[in-house]
Amino acid sequence: MTVSERDKMAAGQWYSCLDAELDALRLTAREAVHRHNTMPPAERQSMAPALRALFRAAADDVFIEAPFHCSYGINISLGARVYLNAGCTVLDSGQVAIGRGTMLGPNVQIYCAEHHKDAVLRGQGLEVARPVTIGADVWIGGGAIILGGVTIGDGAIVGAGSVVTKDVAAGAVVAGNPAHPLPRSQT
Questions:
Q1: To bridge 179 with a disulfide, which of 11, 27, 116, 164 should be the other Cys (CB 3.0-4.6 Å)?
Q2: Is 115 in the active site?
Q3: Confidence at 187, pLDDT banded by 50, 70, 90
């Protein structure tokens, strides 16, 4: 029995993104994203129905500003009251779960794919999908980049422009490139 590239991607194995089935899934996502991004603002209550249907799961009160971009959409789960500001990009070759009450600032980027380090294999489209899990009530500042394989705990804060390469503990504040812990301000 042959294992499809999509099955390998879902299993966290090396797969080729240069694949007809994955191309078709990305086209479906681009079409749904386009419909979302071109909806008149007065009609955009939370997200376009096509985008909602694409996602693995999305609470009724999720709000995604336009423009938004995702690779597949099928690997994205969004909890209640999740807010994604304008310009967010989720390259969801791996599972991306965002917990309730979490807010992403403008231009936050989540990258699940890790491309092969060998140039020849990378040229053949070989990559591996790493999941991203973001807990509840997390605040991610504008322009932050979250790399695959990262878990961000409940109530954490990621400073604007940070590059998160490692897990962030619940309640922690991180900033920088790469992101590192900061003392939590007393307000």
A1: 164
A2: yes
A3: very low
Phi and psi dihedrals of 126, rounded to 5? -75, 130
For residue 45, count CB atoms less than 10 angstroms from its CB and return exposed for 0-12, middle for 13-18, buried for 19 or more.
exposed
pLDDT of residue 22: 98
**Taken in order 61, 50, 33, 126, is the CA torsion positive or negative?**
positive
Identified catalytic residue from 36, 69, 115, 180: 115
Which residue in this structure is represented by tokens 């995702």? 70
- Round to whole Å and give the CA distance between 30 and 72: 8
Cβ neighbors of 150 (< 8 A, separation 6 or more) are: 130, 132, 133, 164, 165, 166, 167, 168
